[in-house]
Design goal:
By secondary structure, the protein is α/β, with parallel strands linked by helices. It has seven helices and seven strands, in the order βαβαβαβαβαβαβα. 38% of the residues lie in helices and 21% in strands. Helix 1 links the parallel strand 1 and strand 2. The protein is globular. It comes from candidate division CSSED10-310 bacterium.
């Protein structure tokens, strides 16, 4: 069986303590899994040394690329940049916070050719109670509004065929980005495979997804997407 061509990107905001480790881990795994690959770091306006570390990694290997946002534009904007920059047939994205085991990309390989989207869902999610409660509520809201039936909408471990983005574009700059993806996938009758993945506690850096401003923006985007679908 021919190995696939894979683009893998990491959205990164203030991940100076994690970015080098996850990129080098991804490089090692992709050298085994892929025929050709590229790793893209999307530095979303970090105000620590994430950008400098990313540039140093890219200088050492032409298969590593960096996209810089001069200012922090939001999680959805970082994902959109990653999807746009990816050039190969299959696009993986994984958060750069070190909470996933990248070797579990092996689990995805038997399915990526047969499904438009292969998405992880977190087994025994290692986040605090408030984040878990928010996630459950978010899943319920999106099931009601958009008919989205995936277990873990915002799991940041996905593989999407690049051809999917010939069918539609994503517009959201904030946390609504994954819900928008699934809502549009449903409209276009795309096939989705869900795979359980391990999840680990963050040991370095600070989570920002549960900030009130992020949640408010997500709900604002939710209604805008509902209005325009």
């Amino acid at each position: 069986m021919t190995k696939p061509d894979i683009s893998l990107f990491f959205p990164a905001y203030n991940e100076e303590g994690n970015i080098e480790r996850v990129v080098l881990e991804a490089k090692s795994i992709l050298e085994e899994l892929a025929r050709n690959f590229e790793i893209i770091i999307v530095n979303d306006g970090s105000n620590d040394d994430t950008g400098k570390i990313a540039d140093a990694l890219a200088a050492q290997d032409p298969r590593i690329k960096v996209c810089h946002h001069p200012l922090n534009r939001g999680y959805g904007a970082a994902l959109k940049t990653g999807y746009t920059a990816a050039r190969l047939e299959y696009i993986f994205f994984v958060d750069s916070d070190g909470q996933f085991d990248l070797s579990e990309m092996h689990k995805f390989m038997p399915f990526i050719a047969d499904f438009d989207i292969v998405t992880g869902y977190r087994i025994r999610r290692q986040d605090n109670f408030v984040r878990i409660l928010n996630a459950r509520g978010w899943n319920i809201i999106n099931k009601i509004l958009f008919g989205i039936n995936v277990k873990d909408i915002n799991c940041a471990f996905k593989c999407i065929k690049r051809s999917v983005f010939d069918l539609f574009t994503l517009t959201t700059d904030g946390a609504m980005i994954n819900a928008e993806l699934y809502a549009k996938a449903r409209i276009h009758e795309l096939t989705i495979k869900e795979i359980g993945v391990s999840h680990y506690s963050r040991t370095i850096g600070t989570q920002t997804g549960a900030h009130l401003s992020v949640i408010i923006k997500a709900f604002r985007e939710l209604w805008l997407i509902k209005k325009h679908l």
